[in-house]
Amino acid sequence: YLNTSTRVTELLRHLHARFLLADCGGGTQDFSCLEVASVEPFLLSEVIPSGGGPFGGLMTNERWAALWQRVLGAENFATLSQADLLSMSTEFEKTKVEYSQLDVEEAAREAEAKAEA
Length: 117
What we know:
The protein is α+β, with helices and mostly antiparallel strands. It contains four helices and three strands; from the N terminus they run αβββααα. It has a three-stranded antiparallel beta sheet with strand order 1-2-3, with no helix packed on it. A hairpin with a 4-residue loop joins β2 (about 30-40) and β3 (about 45-55).
């Protein structure tokens, strides 16, 4: 998910603005702390070395399924139809995306407020 909102675009126009870039893929999550090194031409520099690990969406989905198995019991979980599982996982995916968008928007507001201060 790449947020191209006006707030983020404006943030990136400020020399020395710092931000956290999160790359949350299917198998891993990687994070980089970057700074706008130059506005024209646009250049970024790494403030803190990138890091991350195997905490991506696939692992989250596996843990979500394991949680439901514990809540419902393995036998009851096994009786769920494919349609039920698809419906449940679709709602879970929607929730993850909505949560991610809220985090990005909140971070942009906080960075904007700091830049103005």
